[in-house]
Amino acid sequence: MLHSKTFVKKTRGGKVNKQVREHYLRDDIYCGAPICKVCDSSAARLSPSASTILIVDTNVVLHQIDLLENSAIDDVVMLSIVLEEVKNKNMSVYNRVRALCSNSMRRFFVFANENHKDTFVKEMNKESKNDRNDRAIRVAAQWYQNHLGGAARVLLITNDRENKRKAIEEGISAETIESYVKSLDQPNLLDLLVQPASEDLNMEEVEDLRPSKRKVIYAEHKPMSEITSGLHRGIYHQGKLRVNRYNPFEAYVGSESIGDEIIIYGRANMNRAFDGDIVAVELLPQDQWYEEKSLSIADEEDGEEYVHLVPNSADDAPRTTNVVQGSAGDTKVVSSRPSGFVVGIIKRNWHSYCGSLEPMPMPAGSGGTAHALFVSKDRRIPKIRIQTRQLENLLDKRIIVVVDSWDHLSRYPSGHYVRTIGEIGDRDTESEVVLIENDINSRPFSSQVLACLPSLPWSVSSEDLANPIRQDLRHLRVFSVDPPGCKDIDDALHCITLPNGNFEVGVHIADVTNFVLPGTPLDDEATQRGTSVYLVERRIDMLPKPLTEDICSLRADVERLAFSVIWEMTSEAEIISTRYTKSVIKSSAAMSYIEAQARMDDSRLMDPLTTELRSMNTLAKIMRLKRIERGALTLASAEVKFQIDTETHDPLDIGMYQIREANQMVEEFMLAANVSVAEKILKHFPVFSLLRRHPSPTREMLEPLLRTAAAVGLNLDVSSSKALADSLDHAVGDDPYFNKLIRILATRCMTQAVYFCSGDLSPQEYHHYGLAAPLYTHFTSPIRRYADVIVHRLLAASLEIYKLPSIFQDRPQLTSIADNLNYRHRNAQMAGRASVELHTLIYFRKRPTDTEARIVKIRANGFIVFVPKYGIEGPVYLAPRSEKGGGEWFVDEQQQKIKKMDGSLSFSVLQTIRIHMEVVEPQPNRPKLQLTLI
């Protein structure tokens, strides 16, 4: 059956075209219920013994997804019209619903009501789209009721009062979600319900969780129409809100419209915005602007509830803020950095938060609803008020909570409990928290994904060797150099001297795309995961272990498939020619960096492998020098290395990661391979190549580095990457660690490198600032990065080995993949850092330590220090409130010093100090590594 709809559409040129949209309707779409006597039950997803079948409307799916994911809710019919609405309104919820519907363990059935002749509804005159969708849902519910003929109760779940009223009038059974959950007689399920914002209650004090009289706490958000107009007129400024990790009362909004960061200070000025929200900001009067030196580090004791009503008041800082005093004791006026307050939220960044409930006495009586405050492990997140019927079971647990709303009359946002992770303080629980907070998928691979793998044991076949696209390179002395214990080896090298005195150098990369085929469940899973995640005690793979540690891993003494980049180079590392080929290799050695370095350093060793290592190292040094001469930056980061107990997985030792020449040698050839491949794929596919760029930092971003350098007598030239690189080379002092510290500070001023689709930007924007390379991509780690898988496919297509998958013709889709890769890459980095912080806490819990630290940032009430020995950074407070007569501190912005008014004591940036490190718990369930001045 065909339903046609005719309408007219105006083109850009002003012409009016008549268009006909055809909608095909069928009568053979099954209902999914095995109890049905009419439909084919082989496709049934619902339970044969289901006494009630639920049909849920769009708002229930959007707002109650946490409840729907609970196994107590089953036998649900998901209408196609509901899925389409959810997809248009919230892609994240849509993906979760699709996962539910495709999960063979759950009984969710998708019914194509828009394509069934008995459930499709035509649009009526003067009927809104929303009303038409509600009517379509009721028609589908009515059809199910009639179709099943009383074999099961069909129940429409809707919180829309009007929709429910009409359903009952039409003879359809309908209930609210809360009414239905209560009928299940499982009180704990009520904790998962999202409460409407109108039911939001105000909490007066942390200690008193009873609803208080309603009063205005925050300014109301401006309507979107007013925000749009204000942005257009330059009254408001848009940007992402980033909360300071050391002070949750201090945030920054990067604004392109004023070319600087706007400081947002205090909860009132943040006006219910969360870290990561896209906000509209109005600037405060200039006499209320903050200078960086007047900002403080927040203490754990600072009251979260310390906010004021007036949104443009600059006095709503936490109580630890010290008034900056002038030399005569008068209050110093500060008017440097633009400061502002949030007038509206353009896009929310709410997600799941991990933490625990604030300790509180059990309310009288048991089993009833209790109000509790949830404290996130992330200090940047405000406390969240929830209702729970299982308070006693949750007080000593790490739990997940989701925010539902934040009314301007409420001191705290309202949310609901989702699930329990485990006991507070348990290492496995806390590691799970790290993964959840950073949206890392650590679930086992599904059976559909595992079905895509070749059977084990796997080996190179005669067909592989006979394949004309693949060159047999098993005669070459190929070797790999990796971190100790590395099992997912995705790169290997070779180097031979040619008769003309030049060198043939090869980079051989695991041929992952031979096994990960486009459009398969394995490929879809890798696309979503984006990257492997490396925690201190374990690795979460992007691909299943049979691939990462066996089939693709370039282990010693086994034949493996590779994708090779082979150069002819002069002894001065000039590239004469480059060729690319699929290959078969057999690695002769899988060495650690330490082993490779020991070989090169041992003058007694003259075997071919060691000689080739030395040749490659010599070439790598020349290549590195040339890169630096072009302006590449040699930056530094505080990478921490743990020694882990193999049985308990607890840290036994901690220290800075040591970089050797062997590390730099491998890095140099991987960089060269990435650059060569970037040039090749862009030449063939100028519009849809996946590249990696590193935007140049702005002068404002480099300002903290310049101020610090000037304070210690350094004049850094930041006019170009070459000028900065030269300046950093000359930034040396008496102290051998001084230069590394300056480089670490420089690294922190940089933007993030990102993946992008070449057609989305102009060639000038492709530049990689840190590497001083006009073109760059990722090709060398396809076992652990999906970006490299895409690049392998592009390279193979450029060599006419394979046809390019159709997805590469869809630029918006490729851009979406690049965005996801950037998101996953950043999350993996954050998870790695959080894992280091967790294991640092575990290590120092029983090991209070005195050590040296360097001051890296001055604040009004202390400073941020970096501990070189352990790669740790944290705040040190001066004159804490408990100290009587501590005296006032004066910040000298020019000299980057903080000193006592009486001149008895002063501290300056980059100064070496002695500190005591100890794990304390100033707030329950929030342990932290406390650094105190000795």
UniProtKB/TrEMBL annotation:
Its cofactor is Mg(2+). GO terms for biological process: nuclear mRNA surveillance of mRNA 3'-end processing; rRNA catabolic process; rRNA processing. Coiled coil: none annotated. It holds the Pfam family PIN_4. Residues 470-801 form the RNB domain. Keywords: Exonuclease, Exosome, Hydrolase, Magnesium, Nuclease, Nucleus, RNA-binding, rRNA processing. SMART domains: PINc, RNB. Residues 52-165 form the PIN domain. GO terms for molecular function: 3'-5'-RNA exonuclease activity; endonuclease activity; RNA binding. It is found in: Nucleus. The keyword Magnesium applies. The keyword Magnesium applies. GO terms for cellular component: cytoplasmic exosome (RNase complex); nuclear exosome (RNase complex). Its main location: nucleus. Belongs to the RNR ribonuclease family. This is Exosome complex exonuclease RRP44 homolog A. It comes from Carya illinoinensis.
